[in-house]
Each structure stands twice: as structure tokens, then as C-alpha cells.
Task: structure prediction
Amino acid sequence: MANASPQVRIVTRDEIVAALPSVDAVAAMERAFARYSAGAASVPPVAEILFDDPPGEAHIKAGHISGDPFFAVKVATGFYRNPSRGLASSSGLVTLFDASTGYPSAILLDYGLLTDIRTAAAGAVAAKYLAPAAVRRIAILGSGTQARLQARYLLQVTTCRALSLWARDDQSAARAASDIAAHGFDVEVSTSPAEAVRGAQIVVTTTPSPSPLIAARDIAPGTHITAVGADSEGKQELAADLFAKADIVAADSVTQAALRGDISHALRAGTLEPQRILELGDLIDAPLARKSSAQISIADLTGVATQDIEIAKAVLAAIGT
Result:
């Protein structure tokens, strides 16, 4: 007779929400990127399912950090008509497996919350290591959950509170601006992406746009850009010519960025040479000194499984499991 299977811990979204104030998500993402770039993680290629009607996507990311007691499999979904049904556009869950037996240990039923948090915290990490010292204005493109969270997590790495926001839908932009203002930002709603980024030293793009929103002509010297929306082949937020203008280009994963997201478009267009791409985790271990305040930097974040592992571990530690 086979032995009984080990018990699986089910962690609810309510438990996760209660634990998050005790979690240093930015520090967790620094660990995630550093371990990944140090070669201490096994991360297979992203699996992806795309849907046409209704439009949506499911991303499956998995990985193991050497020495960790767990390996993780995360499913993150995005279905963009969900709000019309009273549902959030993103959902998902994270499953942790015992690395010594292969049995599931915990299922975190976060409905996409941990993906949202770790993505926003990663944006803060990118700004911490790449943004210029003097930041007078932040620009955010998009009006969804990620736009709001990116602003919130930037509070941890910059004292700037002047923010411009653009979104395709005026009502959504107004609601996002109000929510972001509640966190202490002085928010202006812009009528175009080019207007939003004018005068900004930190630009964050958070949309699923299928075509570029900003180009080289829109970006002034001394600007840092974090692009988080284009995480699959069919998305593009940054025009390829912007990478030719950039002095510093970083990715969370060079391998992954070459296949999906904004960097992949620039590589195919020939405006970015592969050897110019740095990895964010390497910059954490050996911070990069800007040669001048006029340099332009880009961080293209498509999300790596080590982020999911570290945020899940941090939440479980905060819960006491």
C-alpha cells in the first residue's frame, strides 16, 4: 500500500493580503535578480497560451533556486474584457513543491496579486539602480493595477512626488490618477504618451499595447525608462529606435528578453546589439555608475520565475508557515 501523500498548505488571498505589510518586496526582488544573474537558478523557458475570443493570455513560469527547499510553478493570466464582467483582468496562482520529494507543499491562491506585487517591486529595483540621482517628475503610461502599484513602490526609492499619467481611456486615467494621488503624488493627466513623458526623469510603461507608445524623439537626455507591459511577442511599448538612443539597456533576463518584449523588437530591427544588454541582477551585485546625468537608460522587465519564488517565500515566512 502506498504511503499517504503529504498535506498541502492552501494559502488564501486574504492571508496573503494580511501578510504583505510585513514583506519587503523590493529586497525580495533584489535577491531574485541577483540569484538569477549569478547562475544559481534553474529557469526553463516561459510557456504561453494565447486566446483570441475573448482576448487573453496565460503565462506559466517555473524555476528553482539552488539550495532552496522549494521549486515553484506560477500561472498568471490576463483577460482584458474581464472588467466588463466585474472581474479583475489578471489572475493566477503560485504552487510551491518540495525540492526533495517533488510533492506539492503549498498553493498560494493569490489570484494574480503576487505577480502584480513582484512586478511593481521589480520596477522599483530598476529605478533604484538605474534612474538618475535628480528626479523631478515621474511618468506612468497605463491606468490598470500595475500603473497604481508602480507608483506606490516608487515611493520607496525616490522622493519625487510629481507624476504625469496617460491612458487610452479618459475615465480610466482619471480614476487611476485619483488613486495614485491618494498616496501623496501630485498627478497630472496627459493627453498623449509624448506629453506624459515630457520633462520626466523616470518613465514606467504598464500597458499591453501591440504597437509602440513612445519613440526616441519623445525621450530627453537624463531619462530612465522601465518597461513592464510588453511581456510577450505580440506586445510592444517602446519603439525600436529608442534603444539606439539609450546609453544603458538592462533586462531581468537577457535570454528571455531576446525572445519577448521590447528588447526582442529592437534586436530584430537591428537597433540594439546583443552585447549591449546588461542584466539587472549583475547591477545589483556591482552597481553601475552613470557616466553623466544625461545618459538614457532602459530596463525591460518580462518577469522571471525567481521573482515568484522569492515573493512566495517571503509571504510564507511572514505568515509563519
In short: The chain is about 30% helix and 25% strand. The domain at 118-304 is CATH 3.40.50.720 (Rossmann fold). The first strand starts at residue 9 and ends at 11. Residues 78 and 90 are 4 Å apart (CA to CA).
